[in-house]
């Protein structure tokens, strides 16, 4: 039980880090891009976007419920990063109607949650 509590708490901490950085960027009046599109700003109808979110979240939750005890610590960290980044962005989109991006990269804008997802995938 202790181990699951640790990974749950770590995921919540990552979500808080993302939300705090977005709050700070907003308070400092940085250039914020309010992304109301799907990942990578793909223009999808909102119903399709939320259906994809639902399918992916249910799929990941099902996979993790079945395999968590067989995963090693590196995989646990990776999934904590992916879940934190994904959940932070999805909940923000549900609450605010958009995701706040503020880190310019090449021709786009990202946020800390996006980096969490990338770190987890790597």
Task: Furnish the topology, listing elements before pairings.
Elements: H1 2-27, E1 33-35, H2 46-67, H3 73-96, E2 99-101, E3 103-105, E4 108-110, H4 112-121
Antiparallel strand pairs: 1-2, 3-4
Helix pairs in contact: 1-3, 3-4
- Unreliable residue runs: none
Would you report the number of β strands? 4
In which order are the strands of the major sheet placed? 1-2
- Tell me the number of helical segments per DSSP (H or I, 4 or more residues long): 4
What is the approximate shape?
globular
Mean pLDDT across the residues is 92
Q: Outline the biggest β-sheet.
A: 2 strands, antiparallel
Class derived from helix and strand content: mainly alpha
Compact description:
The chain has 122 residues and is mainly α.
What descriptors fit this protein?
10% strand, 122 residues, two-stranded antiparallel ribbon, 67% helix, mainly alpha
How would you characterize the overall build of this protein?
- With 122 residues, the protein is mainly α.
- Helices cover 67% and strands 10% of the residues.
- The protein has four helices and four strands.
- The chain has a two-stranded antiparallel ribbon. It has a two-stranded antiparallel sheet with strand order 3-4.
- Strand 3 and strand 4 form a beta hairpin.
- The chain starts with a helix and ends with a helix.
- The model has no long low-confidence stretch (mean pLDDT 92).
């Amino acid at each position: 039980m202790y181990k699951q509590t640790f990974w749950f708490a770590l995921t919540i901490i990552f979500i808080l880090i993302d939300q705090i950085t977005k709050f700070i960027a907003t308070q400092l009046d940085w250039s914020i891009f309010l992304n109301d599109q799907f990942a990578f700003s793909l223009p999808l109808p909102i119903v399709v976007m939320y259906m994809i979110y639902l399918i992916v979240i249910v799929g990941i939750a099902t996979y993790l419920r079945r395999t968590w005890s067989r995963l090693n610590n590196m995989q646990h960290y990776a999934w904590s990063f992916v879940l934190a980044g994904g959940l932070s962005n999805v909940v923000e989109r549900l609450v605010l109607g958009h995701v706040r991006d503020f880190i310019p990269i090449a021709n786009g804008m990202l946020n800390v949650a996006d980096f969490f997802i990338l770190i987890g995938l790597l």
